[in-house]
Amino acid sequence: MVHAERSTRAIVDLGAVSHNVEAIRKRIGPTRGLMAIVKADGYGHGAVPVAREALASGSDWLGVTFPEEGLALRKEGIDVPILVLGLIRPDEAQMVVACDLDQTVASGDILPALDRAAARAGKKLAIHLKVDTGMGRIGVGPDEAVPLARQIERFPHLELSGVFSHLATADSADKSFAREQIATFERVLAGLKRAGIEVPFRHLANSAAVLDLPEAWYDLVRPGTAVYGLYPSPDVSRSIALRPAMTLATQVAAVRTVPAGTSISYGRTFITGAAATTLATLPLGYADGLNRALSNRWEVLVRGERAPLVGTICMDMAVADVSHVAGVEPGDDVVLFGEDPAIEEMAARIGTISYEVACSIGKRVPRTYIRKSGKPGDAELTHARVQEEEPVPCGIPVGARAR
């Protein structure tokens, strides 16, 4: 049986992931832990290939939100510390233990289930105590950190391995609240020390803090969006030169010329002008992650020139006005975002963040993995057929790292 590959695809440059992780490692130094966050299927890039590349490039931890995300990594033979950043139900404790995952805890309610699961497996489970210093989502209050830490220590099959919090405004130009959170975290750490509670890993820094707040680095940093070459906001510094890893590309499905006054797509939100208009139909839509809010508000790259999307973006198709681009034909490559236009520009156009755009690219869009060095002479996707890029095998095992 012959399986044709879809022309629409997300091209993930593992060379960019490697560059970003190496740059983060260089910035934080060799002694701190580096936890690459690969939740949400690696921010839409593919958790397993990104994890392998990150581990080969300087990361020694991985972070996920749910136990099943950790399970998916373990099934692929990835054997490094993996922290589940989210809270779990008691019935999920067995999966956490079976997969040898570190687990976040923000109350004592889950501790008996975790201890029982660890006891049955004959293991000691690593626990990270989450403190709410101002994010307001999950976490024990600062004054409750010591009592909860003592409670964890009373369970024979649990080990307090980490204490952490999360910064709410590290990506803002005004860092004052972030520094208040750091000060609160410091008070928590001091309280633990006075109580004689030793915690091997203290961690607070997200991507924005890696870029701008060295005082938040502690023993371990947790970059997410920076791993994928995306800056958390326009307000953070460019202290690391990041390379975006994802390009969303497709190929022209059809070209047609329509007369003046022709309405395009649902709702007739675009009507051609006084002259004949050449339109290129693209085989992707909002079901693939091309946000419907970009209707009549975005440009794609065709033959090196930007062409506006016209009419309402459909579930499976979109239309571009290519009247000004010479010689457009079915099969021509089209870049929705990449080097030009950039994913940050797309996000700004619809009032969101770049990593929401990346996470929104649907599962039916195949991920193609390439490796570009970033040096002059590399093939550019805007000038070469997507299928001519050399794919990288992603089944290369990574050796186990010591905890």
Fill in the keyword field for this structure.
Lyase, Ornithine Decarboxylase, Chain A, domain 1, elongated, alpha/beta, TIM Barrel, single chain, 11 helices, 6-stranded mixed sheet, 8-stranded parallel β-barrel
Give the SSE map.
Layout (H helix, E strand, L loop, with lengths): L8 E5 H15 L4 E5 L1 H5 L3 H10 L4 E4 L2 H9 L6 E3 L8 H6 L3 E4 L5 H11 L3 E6 L14 H9 L4 E7 L11 H19 L6 E5 L1 H6 L7 E2 L24 E6 L2 E5 L4 E2 L5 E2 L5 E6 L16 E4 L2 E4 L9 E4 L11 E5 L5 H7 L4 H7 L6 E4 L33
Parallel strand pairs: 1-19, 2-3, 2-9, 3-4, 4-5, 5-6, 6-7, 7-8, 8-9
Antiparallel strand pairs: 1-10, 10-18, 11-14, 12-13, 14-17, 15-16, 15-18
Helix pairs in contact: 1-3, 10-11
In percent terms, what proportion of residues is strand? Answer: 15-25%
Helix content: 25-40%
Unreliable stretches (pLDDT < 50, length at least 5) are 376-403
Shape: elongated
Rg value: 24 Å
- How many individual helices? 11
| CATH architecture group name of the largest domain | Alpha-Beta Barrel
Give the H and E element order.
Answer: EHEHHEHEHEHEHEHEHEEEEEEEEEEHHE
Task: Give the gist of this structure.
47% of the residues are buried. The protein has 403 residues and is α/β, with parallel strands linked by helices.
What do you see in this structure?
This protein is α/β, with parallel strands linked by helices and 403 residues long. The protein folds into two domains: 14-228, TIM Barrel; 246-388, Lyase, Ornithine Decarboxylase, Chain A, domain 1. Helices cover 26% and strands 21% of the residues. It contains eleven helices and 19 strands. It has helices at residues 14-28, 39-43, 47-56, 67-75, 93-98, 111-121, 145-153, 176-194, 207-212, 343-349, 354-360; strands at residues 9-13, 33-37, 61-64, 82-84, 102-105, 125-130, 158-164, 201-205, 220-221, 246-251, 254-258, 263-264, 270-271, 277-282, 299-302, 305-308, 318-321, 333-337, 367-370. The strands form four sheets. The chain has an eight-stranded parallel barrel, surrounded by six helices. The chain has a six-stranded mixed beta sheet with strand order 16-15-18-10-1-19. The longest helix has 19 residues, at 176-194. The chain is elongated, with a radius of gyration of 24 Å.
